[in-house]
Write a structure and sequence with these properties.
Blueprint: H1 2-17, H2 22-38, H3 45-49
């Protein structure tokens, strides 16, 4: 439940402060982190790490 309140609070911050330009940055950071975590133990990991 704690994680959901953080997301809700972040969305409220974006709405009130009109900081919608932060949304793509946060989304890309989340997707890159998920990509690294999910491919960590797979056979394609060496190919993913060469992109960075």
């Amino acid at each position: 439940m704690g994680k959901l309140s953080i997301i809700r609070e972040f969305l409220e911050f974006l709405r009130v402060r009109k900081k919608w330009w932060l949304t793509p940055i946060i989304l890309m950071l989340f997707l890159l982190g998920a990509l690294i975590i999910l491919t960590e133990g797979s056979a394609i990991a060496p190919f993913i790490y060469t992109l960075f």
